[in-house]
């Protein structure tokens, strides 16, 4: 959930930004706990809006670290203002440790000193982490992991020495599809059904394409996951809309994770990552779609759609409607062109070619809730 921080440090105006699984009641349970949370009284540069994760999970074995970032990798994401002034800092983030060993859906719990962007730097660092996933009854399962990160400098850095590290789940106008990742799966790993993960660090051209990629991590070694990741990096393109955008690309480095899951080689249903929304229907669009039905009470619809190139959705179908038989699905389908998702995820998985379930909830009146991906 996301909450505002009052002058007293109490959390207020909390709202659920994502619930897994959607409609399970976990969000309502977390909202009921909001009065139990509190922070130090905020200062002039303190965060005035915070994300608070909540999880109810059971595991037999918790996740464990396989690789942590090196000092060089920490330096690459060091906040530029703090770096120039020689200021050290720290951050604490909460993430979901995926079954493929990556980190996703990370949120900043704390950063010190406040307002120096150490929280954002910690999020940018997450592609450098590799984990052994938690298990339940012997099978890997997603779990929550809390990650404290210290950023330490000894004296001021050299101004302009470090570039800005951009997150991997940018709104790429072009990105590898599920089929592209399967085709790039390294032959040795494919033959032995071995999964792996590689992160490459790339510069960006004025046209928004990735170039000059170097290997940051590749596990397990010796299977060619780094070469496969570099070949896929050539398929990414960020939309450059102006001369200033083109100039800004010179100062951007992308730490791009690529996950190779062996189940990709066997499953008919694409193994894709959990997308983030880059565009959603407005409150007015929701109201226009559903108020024409002149129904009372809470209306719920779930759409299942295929993710298309560019993050658009298509081939949608209504898979549930409450109440049923009232035309809710048909109205919800008219909103499909207004949805757009990211084409690559923070844990290094494609979304294009996969399917996304879109839960929609509408309550007649002034308040309409936004959907979340599943």
CATH superfamily annotation of the largest domain: TonB
Write the CATH architecture name of the largest domain.
Answer: 2-Layer Sandwich
Largest sheet strand order: 11-16-13-14
How far apart are the termini?
16 Å
Average pLDDT value?
A: 85
The CATH class of the largest domain, by name, is Alpha Beta
The DSSP helix count reads 10
CATH topology of the largest domain: TolA/TonB C-terminal domain
Please tell me what the overall shape is: globular
* Largest sheet report: 4 strands, mixed
* Low-confidence segments: 157-161
Specify the helix fraction band: 10-25%
Number of domains: 4
Structural description of this entry:
It contains ten helices and 21 strands. With 374 residues, it is of the alpha+beta class. It folds into four domains: 1-56, no CATH class; 61-162, TolA/TonB C-terminal domain (2-Layer Sandwich); 166-265, TonB (TolA/TonB C-terminal domain), CATH 3.30.2420.10; 277-362, TolA/TonB C-terminal domain, CATH 3.30.2420. The strands form eight sheets. A four-stranded mixed sheet has the order 11-16-13-14, sandwiched between helices. The protein is globular. Residues 157-161 have low confidence and may be disordered.
Summarize the entry for a quick read:
The chain has 374 residues and is α+β, with helices and mostly antiparallel strands. It has helices at 26-32, 71-76, 80-85, 118-125, 178-184, 187-192, 225-233, 243-248, 283-291, 328-333; strands spanning 2-5, 11-15, 49-51, 64-67, 89-97, 103-112, 130-132, 134-136, 139-141, 143-151, 164-166, 172-174, 196-204, 210-219, 237-238, 252-260, 277-279, 299-307, 313-322, 340-341, 355-362. The protein folds into four domains: 1-56, no CATH class; 61-162, TolA/TonB C-terminal domain, CATH 3.30.2420.10; 166-265, TonB (TolA/TonB C-terminal domain), CATH 3.30.2420.10; 277-362, 2-Layer Sandwich (TolA/TonB C-terminal domain), CATH 3.30.2420.
